Amino acid sequence: MLTIPRNLLDAIYEHGEEAFPTECCGILIGFTDGTNRTVVAIERARNLRAEEANDRYEIDAGFRKIVEEKAHDKGLCIVGFYHSHPDHNAYFSQTDLECSEEYIWGQPWIPPTYSYPVVSIRDGRGSHHKCFIVVDGKAVEEDLNITSEPLGPTR
CB count, 10 Å around CB of 145? Predict the structure, then answer.
């Protein structure tokens, strides 16, 4: 399960609306407790797939490394990656699956490591969202727990 405060989910929608008609993308920072991931912050990322940005996204590996190091310094980690689908439903496409870290590692499949929320942006406005994990090389919808209060590490 992914737990995210409403204000951060709203910020993801806002990012998607600003990027429309292209896909936005970003990194979820937080902490894990077994199979549960909790988001305490997001980092917007620039979509490197400018020529295909209406249906593709890619996050710069150097930027990701910087975000990961800063999170680690605060006792946190990367718990997932978000993106938008302009004028399409919130689903995990075959391309999304094949670009996921769990899929890239291949067999034997690593356990679900990251959450992948997708927000649908229709006509420039946030529509709906879904969240996914990768299990045994397949996308599986994940429960999303939206809280009203900001969250922080409980350590």
Answer: 12
Distance of CA 83 to the CA centre of its chain: 6
Burial classification of residue 75, based on how many CB atoms lie within 10 Å of its CB (0-12 exposed, 13-18 middle, 19 or more buried): exposed
Contact 120, 84 (CB under 8 A): yes
CA angle 67, 93, 124 (to 5 degrees): 75
**7 DSSP 8-state letter:** H
- Domain ranges, ordered by start, for the chain: 2-147
Distance from C-alpha of 152 to C-alpha of 89, rounded to nearest angstrom: 31
> 26, 75 in Cβ contact below 8 A?
no
Q: Which residues are within 8 A (CB) of 143 and not within 5 positions of it... i.e. 6 or more apart?
A: 1, 2, 131
Token reading at 127: 């529509």
pLDDT per residue over 10-60, tens digit each?
Answer: 999 999 999 999 999 999 999 999 899 999 999 999 999 867 757 789 999
Percentage, residues of the chain above pLDDT 90:
79
Supply the CATH classification number for the domain 2-147.
Answer: 3.40.140.10
The phi and psi torsions of 137 (rounded to 5 degrees) equal 80, 10
Write the pLDDT tens digit of every residue in 51-86: 775 778 999 999 999 999 999 999 999 999 999 999
